[in-house]
Design a protein that fits this description.
The complex is a heterodimer of chains A (283) and B (253). Chain A is of the alpha/beta class and 283 residues long. Chain A contains 7 helices and 14 strands. Chain A has a single domain (18-278), classed as P-loop containing nucleotide triphosphate hydrolases (Rossmann fold). In chain A, the strands form 3 sheets. Chain A has a 9-stranded mixed β-sheet with strand order 5-4-6-7-3-11-12-13-14, sandwiched between helices. In chain A, strands 8-10-9 form a 3-stranded antiparallel β-sheet, with no helix packed on it. A two-stranded antiparallel ribbon of chain A has the order 1-2. In chain A, helix 4 (112-127) runs parallel beside helix 6. The model of chain A has no long low-confidence stretch (mean pLDDT 87). Chain B contains 11 helices and 10 strands. Chain B has one domain: Rossmann fold (3-Layer(aba) Sandwich), CATH 3.40.50.300. Mean pLDDT of chain B is 84; it is low at 1-13. In chain B, the strands form 3 sheets. A 6-stranded parallel β-sheet of chain B has the order 5-4-6-7-3-10, sandwiched between helices. In chain B, strands 1-2 form a two-stranded antiparallel sheet. In chain B, strands 8-9 form a two-stranded antiparallel sheet. Chain B has helices at residues 3-11, 23-32, 41-46, 67-77, 102-119, 121-124, 130-133, 136-140, 151-167, 190-210, 237-240, and strands at residues 35-36, 51-52, 56-61, 90-95, 143-147, 171-177, 214-219, 221-226, 229-234, 246-250. Classes of the chains: A alpha/beta (283), B alpha/beta (253).
Chain lengths: 283, 253
Amino acid sequence: MLPGIEPLNPLLHLPAQKLTLGCPVLDRFLRGGLPVGSVTEIAGESAAGKTQLCLQLLLAALLPPSRGGLSAASLFIHSEFPFPLRRLRALSSSPLATDPLDHIFVAAAHSPDDLLSLLATADGLLARPPTHLPVRLIVVDSIAALFRSDFDNNPKDLKKRSFLFFKIAAKLKEQARRFGSVVVVTNQVVDVIGSEEGANGQRVGNYASLWSSGRRVCPALGLSWANCVNTRLFLSRKDEVADDGVSSRTRRWMQVVFAPHLPEASCEFVIVREGVSGIEPQR
Amino acid sequence: MSETSRFRSTEGSHGALKGAQTAWDMLSEEQMQKHITTGCEELDAILGGGIHCKEVTEVGGVPGIGKTQLGIQLTVNVQIPVECGGLGGKAVYIDTEGSFMVERAHQIAEGCISDLLDNTAHRLKDFPACPERLQPNSFLSNIFYFRICSYTEQIATINYLEKFLEEQKDVKIIVVDSITFHFRQDFDDLALRTRVLSGMSLKLMSFAKKYSLAVVLLNQVTTKFVEGSFHLTLALGDTWSHACTNRIILQSV
């Protein structure tokens, strides 16, 4: 058989395996969690909760399949500094048999090329995991930070940039496929100026416009990167004055911008000491 | 010349040209062809009745517009039994991006089946074997799914289809989702890219003709800077644009 050639039939009776988000409400919202074998993007402005969600996923991956996890270790590649070790420590104080931190591999990437060479070496880690657990979650937090500085806004650089997008995405998808991993990539947002839709006047996904903190925004890196992810989730926040009229509180939402298996939907969530959790929609 | 004699004339040899057909024959053959419904009347109307067999149709649009959804829908609709006015064929799905979701295909198959039961129940009465075939799982088992991770695999798979289609004569549609993805990285030599792509499209075109099946290529879109403003255009450049019989762009309003 040639590479790539396979019958779908053995998969027939199985829904695609999903990784829990560590919260039943959000899991229901995403029909079980994040799918294995594909790339999910989580976009949002700073302090929307992207990294919090990623940290929670690292711990959720360790859970046994009976609890929605993958019984798997994970690889966390960060390009934003510092790595939130103390927060991860605080979240991981759950009664698991082994210390979760032993099964989370952390690496830093400083440039797109850095990321590519890291992913190439990660093949070894994925094929021959150093612990008894397979590595089946790859998180890149964030993709946007890698591309924010080095590229100018001229045709040559833009072309180079989009080649890199496709190269990175192809590598991530290959790993997702070969190792049955969940791949999560976070992305920043850019402000939308004027009345045009999206970045270049193009609406991408279910929503004509996305709002966060009262600003109109769209996920960074433009149309070519949007072609590289299978699912795009958008996190937004909004500060509201509480009922007492003095203190303020932050409300947060998760929206499905596009996904091959999900309809347009949104779900409110909160970030508390124990982690990220969804709020059951009022009926 | 009467119609019958026109037909008769094609049975004999057409002078020195072997395999030649008259335009008349081609027209009547085309009118005989069934089309694969997209499941949307308006879109079918635009396409002249649906997706045509023996042709290559390219579908483009921004991420999230529904290209993959249409692709999955077609792999289901091609299986609508002949008794219900469909082709009763099988499908090949070549997934280069990893967006094909079994659970979604299952849902679409369920939707298609319930439509069939609602609309063609009277026809189904005469075909007792039908209800067994009208199960989502039997729809899924007639989709041959190929997941490929690089452009070399893509070329290899399309070459392999030659043999595969010889064995699976029931395949009536090939969907490639997307034709583009692996060709947008790392091609320093764009002339080489063009040659590889044209080779692939010629091959797909020949499958379409030889096995009278439909080929649907999903393509991404990119922005092109023309006269001071950005325009949306299908990816892979101008040479590629000659590769397909029909090109449609999906857009939201």
